[in-house]
Amino acid sequence: xxxxxxxxxxxxxxxxxxxxxxxxxxxxxxxxxxxxxxxxxxxxxxxxxxxxxxxxxxxxxxxxxxxxxxxxxxxxxxxxxxxxxxxxxxxxxxxxxxxxxxxxxxxxxxxxxxxxxxxxxxxxxxxxxxxxxxxxxxxxxxxxxxxxxxxxxxx
Length: 155
Ligand code: RB5
Hints:
Bound molecules: D-ribose
Strand order of the largest sheet: 2-1-3-5-4
Radius of gyration: 15 Å
Number of domains: 1
Number of helices: 6
């Protein structure tokens, strides 16, 4: 994946709304994720904000740097819907660490969306670990299907 120029860490953009803020802070500081250099795009407190605003900031950073992202809101649903409206962003709400592997291997997601209120920090950290340690399989069956998604985008 995307290696930092100054270290061997993977650069990952991370953003949330207020309902994901506490979870975001726990994720950024967890030693199990020290192989990731998190670039925090906000929000920066528990004050109420609108998840589409942070989805757009996160999406722009991911696309500009051809990188990857972690997005968090209360359920993960709202921020994932907003992210998927940006061409070139592919995300889904992931609640299970095994599915996190398949989300990279089969679906080649570039952003993992998480719940701040209905998942534990431990579960989300396992999801992130699995997501960023897995690569896209490059299996022609999966490539064909992802290309069909891109065809739908063009219609
Ligand atoms: C905010 O209260 C909440 O609606 C939001 O974080 C998210 O869960 C939306 O899908």
